[in-house]
Amino acid sequence: MNALDLHALTETPLVSDPFEYVIVPNFIRTDALPALMEAFPEPRQPGSWPLERMAVGPVFRQFVEELNGPGFRAAVEEKFHIDLSGRPTMMTLRGQCREKDGQIHTDTETKLITVLLYMNPPWEAEGGRLRLLRSPSLDDAAAEVSPEAGTLLIFRRSERSFHGHEPFRGRRRALQMNWVTDQKVVDRELKRHTFSSLLKSLNPFSARAGQDRAGRHAG
Questions:
Q1: Could you tell me the CATH number of the domain that includes residue 53?
Q2: Which domain holds residue 39?
Q3: What angle do CA 43, 203, 51 make, to 5 degrees?
Q4: How many domains does the chain divide into?
Q5: What is this structure's pTM?
Q6: Strands ordered across the beta sheet of 163-164
């Protein structure tokens, strides 16, 4: 299965104001999208969950392999004029959104490139639409992304890459992929989530605090 329309990414111009980003509707091919939406390993609880901690079936696993493959990486490198060789990737999934989620942030310095792929039906809610901001204000938006199935957003993290969304509560499915500075970043995130899972088995309220910190700053 070749699910990614790399030609669409190549042909979509890079926007550089207020920071570098590209938005590609229908990036997932229409013949592949229904199966991927069905196979999406949806977290049943709020927050961002590492892909490694989810039960992933063969259809979605093949999709992840394509995202981690040389074709997609080369397209991102060309678009953003960046060398990602030797940079590991980290993937997280979201399934549920809370009203406190989507707070304005720029992403951490350890993230070089952020990729967001949405897996939702046509979006009718006002909240939950990710805004790319010129300043730390939701009223100062340069662009707004509806989280509809197959929509791709990629941006280069910088001190100006402010983004967030208006409050929304309910189902909001997304895959986030980051090229990060080194493997230590990936290992640290997995360790943090393992600790959070252990806390949850002992005290769900303690674990929820850890997921809150991750979830509030998701795309």
A1: 2.60.120.620
A2: 6-215
A3: 25
A4: 1
A5: 0.90
A6: 141-145, 130-133, 163-164
